[in-house]
Design brief:
Elements: E1 7-9, H1 10-15, H2 20-27, E2 32-34, E3 45-49, H3 50-57, H4 60-93, H5 103-120, H6 143-157, H7 171-192, H8 197-206
Antiparallel strand pairs: 1-3, 2-3
Helix pairs in contact: 4-7, 5-6, 7-8
Length: about 210
């Protein structure tokens, strides 16, 4: 026989197969509620008598509500999968238009973009930052750093394509779509600027 003083927390109700709506409609007000002074969270503590929970779980109303909940979850999963497939298809079909700039202009914009990023994070050590020097005037970055800066700038210039990910939620589906999109963007940059192709391939491998 169930101990009449045993309670189930709200999280435990979900693990037992209860949805939020089922708890509200079938159980109503929690048997114990308030704020746990031992926790920093302001979320209220909601406890339900296990005996009452088990009694409701044996009713036809619970069985019907649980079946309805499973049906809705399955339908939601189908919709999410269709949305994921549609987004992936759009990402693969979308033409990627990379801005074509003369080399000096691209280098100038890349350096400016890098310096702006550094200014936004003054407490962080800037990657590939030029060494300190007493000589006046700017110090040109190493050639390898400049290549990385150019790819970073062009990737930023293509950030508008991230709107293709709108409507995708959930780690698995969105993560795959983000990887496909990044790969397409780097491949487009490499095609438009062959000297940057090696760095683009490196980023594809790192971000895979």
């Amino acid at each position: 026989m169930t101990d009449r003083t045993t309670y189930v927390a709200f999280a435990g109700m979900r693990r037992r197969g209860w949805s939020d709506a089922m708890v509200r409609d079938l159980l109503g007000t929690p048997d114990v509620q308030g704020r746990d002074p031992r926790r920093w969270s302001l979320a209220p503590v909601r406890l339900y008598l296990l005996a009452r929970v088990e009694t409701v779980e044996r009713t036809p109303e619970f069985t019907e509500a649980a079946a309805h909940c499973r049906t809705r979850a399955a339908a939601s999963g189908v919709h999410a999968e269709r949305r994921r497939a549609a987004v992936l298809a759009a990402i693969r079909a979308e033409p990627i238009e990379v801005p074509l700039l003369p080399r000096p202009e691209l280098e100038r914009r890349a350096v400016r973009h890098r310096h702006l990023l550094g200014a936004r994070s003054p407490g962080r050590r800037r990657e590939d930052a030029p060494p300190e020097t007493a000589a006046p005037g700017p110090v040109p970055p190493p050639s390898g750093a400049l290549v990385r800066w150019q790819v970073s700038y062009l990737r930023h210039a293509l950030s508008r394509y991230e709107a293709l990910l709108d409507g995708l939620y959930g780690e698995t589906g969105r993560g795959e779509a983000e990887r496909v999109l990044r790969r397409r963007l780097y491949e487009a940059i490499a095609a438009a600027y062959p000297p940057l192709a090696r760095e683009c391939r490196r980023r594809i491998e790192v971000e895979r």
